[in-house]
Design goal:
Layout lengths: L2 E7 L6 H10 L8 E8 L4 E8 L2 H8 L11 E6 L14 E2 L5 E6 L5 H10 L10 H13 L6 H9 L6 E7 L6 E6 L4 E4 L3 E5 L11 E4 L5 E4 L4 E3 L8 E2 L15 H7 L1 H9 L9
Length: 283
């Protein structure tokens, strides 16, 4: 089970990497074999990235003492559970295009990736990983370069039209940097609406420490998140939900593993399920 996190703030939070890694840690219960991030550095006008095989702590060890190097906005992060391709740094997310302009993280399976990859290779695209995900980055590159306005969301919309399978996507671009574009088909994504910040994640556990105001993305929807606002393409009325979870509900608490915690909470869970639905006087 892979995990997606994205973060963008209005004033360029210097702790964006820290925020992203903390959110990513809340998805560790899903299981994963590698982790990585990519983010736009306003100073260098480039996207910086780092990946590591193993737990998130391995990624943190690789960047220890160099957090200033990774003062980025926006940022996307990912924990991968290998499906297509072996467990290597090259196969870890985020993935990029030929020019290292387009970077994205992906949950799901692209069933026609081999066909798309063969077509893209004939067009001159060079691949560096074994994954199905990388195909999406090169498709977005193709449509981004073919768009005179260099509009990231337009390129994403055109790219996903060619995909067969499932996807939850978070995409950033060096040449259109002040946004995260997200898209969903049969792979959950939720947008957290905070104070001068937005988060996107594959699970609301990742964002509950920052906000309880959320918007669930529906299948076939594409959203554009900027430092000031977000929108869902083709949608005027956006439904906002409020989480009634507490932060401790998303933590392991005193238990060493999430599974043990869930087992021990079964009596309380059953009590909550039947509360208000059982009339004791009538049985």
């Amino acid at each position: 089970m892979c995990g997606i996190v994205g973060y963008i703030s209005k004033n360029g939070n210097p702790d964006s990497l820290k925020v992203g890694l903390e959110a990513l840690r809340r998805l560790e219960y899903r299981g994963y074999d590698s982790a990585g991030f990519a983010g736009y550095d306003e100073r260098t006008k480039k996207i910086v990235s780092q990946k590591a095989v193993g737990k998130i702590v391995k990624l943190e060890e690789k960047i220890k003492g160099s957090h200033e190097q990774f003062s980025v906005n926006p940022i996307i992060l990912h924990t991968r559970w290998a499906t297509t391709g072996t467990v290597t740094e090259a196969n870890a997310h985020p993935h990029h295009d030929c020019r290292e302009n387009i970077w994205l993280v992906h949950n799901g399976i692209i069933e026609n990736y081999q066909y798309l990859k063969a077509r893209l290779e004939k067009e001159g695209h060079k691949f560096y990983s074994e994954t199905d995900t990388e195909v999406i980055a090169h498709l977005v590159e193709k449509f981004f370069e073919g768009n005179k306005r260099k509009n990231l969301e337009g390129a994403v919309v055109e790219a996903i039209k060619l995909l067969k399978g499932t996807y939850g996507l978070a995409v950033i671009a060096r040449d259109d940097p002040e946004k995260i574009v997200v898209a969903r088909l049969s792979s959950p994504l939720v947008i957290g609406v905070g104070e001068n910040e937005f988060l996107v994640a594959s699970d609301y556990n990742a964002i509950i420490a920052h906000t309880r105001k959320v918007v669930y993305l529906n299948d076939n929807e594409v959203a554009v998140i900027t430092p000031d606002k977000f929108s869902i393409l083709g949608t005027e009325e956006i439904k906002t939900d409020f989480l009634d979870w507490q932060l401790e509900d998303a933590d392991k608490g005193k238990y060493p593993h999430f599974m043990i915690k869930e087992i021990m909470e079964e009596p309380e869970t059953m009590e909550n399920v039947i509360r208000g639905r059982l009339v004791m006087e009538e049985g």
